[in-house]
């Protein structure tokens, strides 16, 4: 017998390209928490990148490559899962588009860290612009988590 958490995680992949269905709260949170746990384990196991100095470039280790491949692989399914969650809550799809526009910047930042150091990124876009972008990314992730935590339909 399959547990609800397993069903919810399988639905993450089953509906990976579907934005028209609805997702219950557990269908959002179980995959989200599973991915956070997976990424955390990979980061902690990647001793070479765990011990680099702040601002340095990531070292292209096998674990770093797995982390990046999984991040890219789950980007669209994570967006569609959030979209389905908003459908369940009766919230406008425009919110998902805006939030994931900023979340895309977060993915590009992590990808860029594999090519250059944090300092080089800041030098290219400017420290002030970098801080603004980092703040927008943080706010967008926070808004996503708050919206996904809602348990009933809300009107916006």
Describe the structure.
The mean pLDDT is 85. Helix 2 (25-45) runs antiparallel to helix 4 (62-89), helix 4 packs antiparallel against helix 5 and helix 5 (93-113) crosses helix 7 (127-149). This protein has helices spanning 4-14, 25-45, 47-50, 62-89, 93-113, 118-125, 127-149. Helices cover 74% and strands 0% of the residues. It is built from 7 helices and no strands. The protein has one domain. With 156 residues, it is an all-alpha fold. InterPro entries: DUF805. It holds the Pfam family DUF805.
Brief write-up:
The protein is mainly α and 156 residues long.
C-alpha-based Rg, rounded: 17 Å
State which percent range the strand residues make up: under 5%
The dominant shape is globular
Show unreliable segments. none
Please count the beta strands (DSSP E, at least 2 residues each): 0
Cα separation of the termini = 39 Å
- Please outline the major beta sheet: none
Helix share of residues?
Answer: over 70%
What is the count of DSSP helices, taking H or I runs of 4+ residues?
Answer: 7
What is the arithmetic mean of pLDDT? 85
Structural class of the secondary elements?
Answer: mainly alpha
How many domains in all? 1
* SSE run: HHHHHHH
InterPro entries: DUF805
Pfam family, one: DUF805
Keywords: Membrane, Transmembrane, Transmembrane helix
Organism: Macrococcus armenti
């Amino acid at each position: 017998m399959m547990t609800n958490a397993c069903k919810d995680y399988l639905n993450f992949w089953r509906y990976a390209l579907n934005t028209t269905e609805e997702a219950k709260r557990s269908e959002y949170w179980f995959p989200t928490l599973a991915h956070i746990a997976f990424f955390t384990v990979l980061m902690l196991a990647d001793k070479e990148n765990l011990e680099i100095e702040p601002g340095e470039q990531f070292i292209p280790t096998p674990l770093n490559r797995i982390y990046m491949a999984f991040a890219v692989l789950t980007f669209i399914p994570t967006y569609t899962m959030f979209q389905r969650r908003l459908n369940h809550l009766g919230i406008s799809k425009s919110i998902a588009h805006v939030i994931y526009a900023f979340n895309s910047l977060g993915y590009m930042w992590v990808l860029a860290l594999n090519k250059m150091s944090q300092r080089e990124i800041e030098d290219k876009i400017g420290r002030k612009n970098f801080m603004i972008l980092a703040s927008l990314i943080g706010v967008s992730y926070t808004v996503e988590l708050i919206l996904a935590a809602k348990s009933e339909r809300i009107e916006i």
